[in-house]
Amino acid sequence: MQHSSRYEVNTLRRFMEQAFTACGVSEADGQIVVDNLLYAELRGIKSHGVSRFPVYLRRIQMGAVNPQPQISMEQRTPVLLKVDGDNGLGSVVMVHALNRGMELAEQLGICAVGIKGSNHCGASGYYCELAAEQGLVSIVLTDGPPATPPWGGRKAYFGTNPMAFGLPRAQKPHIIVDLATSLAARGKVIRAAAQGEKIPEGWALDREGLPTTDPQAALAGVLLPMAGAKGYALSLVVEHLAGVLVGAGFGKDVAWQYSEGNKPANVGHFIILVKADAFMEMADYHKRTEQFVEEIKKIPLAPGTKEIKLPGERSWEQQQNTEAQGIILDADLQAALQTIAQELTINLG
């Protein structure tokens, strides 16, 4: 019987990059996708980490994702960038769009990027991290296939519609907020189903609109929005900005990557980038940000709390540990990677 195993980060990196190349993805684009997957894995966001690699690869092999997209960009105004991802891998589309958006924001102080023709793009906080490294405040919104209902409904219409925000600091860790507008990311439910685990009460409803802790029933039913009607309102806004506004799919027109068939997903993204020194000198921005952080961390602690953490800080700390100790893959995921290795005649290590 196969058990969980630990792998060096670079071993998994090389394997996934080779697999993407074997499926027609350029070396540079493969590195982008793998970097995004490992960012999530190292930070403990396993729902968006290496577990997503097999389905990304399968979608390429099915003809559902274009491994060599001709990404087009149109500068509609000095600060508005329109991007068509040509059905490329989501993180590839996002990074190419983000890089051009950051150039414009650096020149003009701000840039809004609207993206259509994309796919699942992994952890949205990754893009905020890249922007923060360049001294840019960022907002990243993404729609997705139907997963949550409008408040009061029992049929899915909105995606889990993540929102991410990046607030740069002079030194790492930057402040990174990355959250789904559903009570839990669908990737966590998928992972629970794969491992035969139950999900917490309150996460989902089954097909009949009844509460369930069965992840399979949840996937067949609906996930619930965070914060009730407030989460529904936020999800609606994300769906509009990242779907309706930018010309991408929305509602039932966004395809789920785990479904059969090769229908393009047409996921949409909306990015806003602002220079951190847009309103003051960078030194002043950093000084005020560190004062802000210090004041937050000095708030008296609630009983049982040892330290106040900033959003993304625990994940950043976990990344430092995992990079040194290696990545643990459960038996099912390890078996899936071994199958890919055999099919593509490459070595998992």
Automatic annotation (TrEMBL):
RNA-binding recorded as keyword: no
Keywords, ordered alphabetically: Oxidoreductase
Listed Gene3D superfamilies: 1.10.1530.10, Hypothetical oxidoreductase yiak, domain 2
Gene Ontology MF: a single term: oxidoreductase activity
Record's keyword annotation contains Transmembrane: no
A Pfam family: Ldh_2
Family of the protein in this entry: Belongs to the LDH2/MDH2 oxidoreductase family.
Protein name per the record: Malate/L-lactate dehydrogenase
Native organism taxonomy: Bacteria, Bacillati, Bacillota, Clostridia, Eubacteriales
